[in-house]
Specification:
Layout lengths: L3 H10 L7 E5 L2 E6 L1 H4 L8 H9 L4 E4 L5 H8 L5 E5 L2 H10 L4 E3 L9 E6 L13 H10 L1 E12 L24 E8 L2 E2 L3 E4 L3 H10 L3 E7 L4 E7 L1
Parallel strand pairs: 3-4, 3-6, 4-5, 6-7
Antiparallel strand pairs: 1-2, 1-8, 7-12, 8-9, 8-10, 11-12
Helix pairs in contact: 1-5
Length: about 230
């Protein structure tokens, strides 16, 4: 991976903002992701994210923290202990420059510790890539929870993006195991990232996966664009 997301985040932090990230998926056309959005304040965040940040408690792990906007709010405004992790070294460097006190480059699947709240915001469950990886992913997250701990995760049901067939059902390629499994494409400043798998998981499927892992799953809030916030707990 070329870490184009991280490079773009660090560019913005260091005053080298000249263009935005361009993204696309295997079922959608190219779209621009404005870098300032990744540096948004609490007041600029969607209600789903604001709600998750208000529900956060205790020792918090912010997984896939990106530019660190969620961590900064919890650290500075709610006085919570926050550990921000991301696989991107450049993003973590930007987080540290922004003032995130505990930020480190790490892969959640090899990360250890105990936390009262695990945040997976901006479709954090997507890092599974494939639905068949959600079970080991959730099992590992469960091992990081303290007694009474919680996982706050948002995602979207993207079934609306598929065309209807003659019978009124949705036309989904037979080559796809689950309609929420996409290939994700990123380009920035003339460079192309290696395409990677990304998962959008509908709430019922998440709930079933959570229950199979011995986790309770509660629908906290539904957004206006087929998105939702869920809480998983032991």
């Amino acid at each position: 991976m070329k870490d184009l997301f991280g490079k773009a985040i660090l560019d913005y932090q260091q005053g080298n903002y000249t263009e935005d990230i361009v993204t696309a998926t295997s079922i959608s056309e190219e779209d621009s992701l404005p870098l300032p959005y990744l540096f948004r304040s609490y007041d600029e965040m969607p209600l789903l994210e604001q709600t998750a940040l208000q529900l956060a408690k205790g020792n918090v792990l912010d997984v896939g923290c990106g530019a660190g906007s969620h961590s900064l709010y919890l650290q500075n405004e709610r006085n919570l202990k926050v550990t921000a992790i991301d696989v991107s070294e450049a993003a973590i460097e930007a987080c540290k420059l922004r003032g995130v006190q505990h930020a480190e480059t790490a892969d959640i699947l090899s990360f250890e510790g105990k936390f009262d709240t695990i945040l997976l915001l901006m479709n954090g469950a997507g890092m599974c890539g494939k639905l068949n990886k959600i079970s080991p992913f959730l099992h590992h997250l469960k091992s990081l929870l303290t007694d009474g701990g919680q996982i706050l995760v948002d995602s979207s049901d993207i079934i609306y993006m598929f065309d209807e067939d003659e019978d009124g059902g949705k036309w989904i390629s037979s080559e796809t195991d689950y309609y929420g499994e996409l290939l994700y494409y990123v380009s920035y400043k003339g460079e192309q990232e290696t395409p990677f798998h990304w998962l959008y998981i509908d709430y019922n499927t998440l709930q079933n996966a959570a229950h199979a892992c011995g986790l309770q799953c509660e629908l906290i809030l539904e957004g206006e664009h087929y998105d939702y916030l869920a809480k998983l707990s032991v």
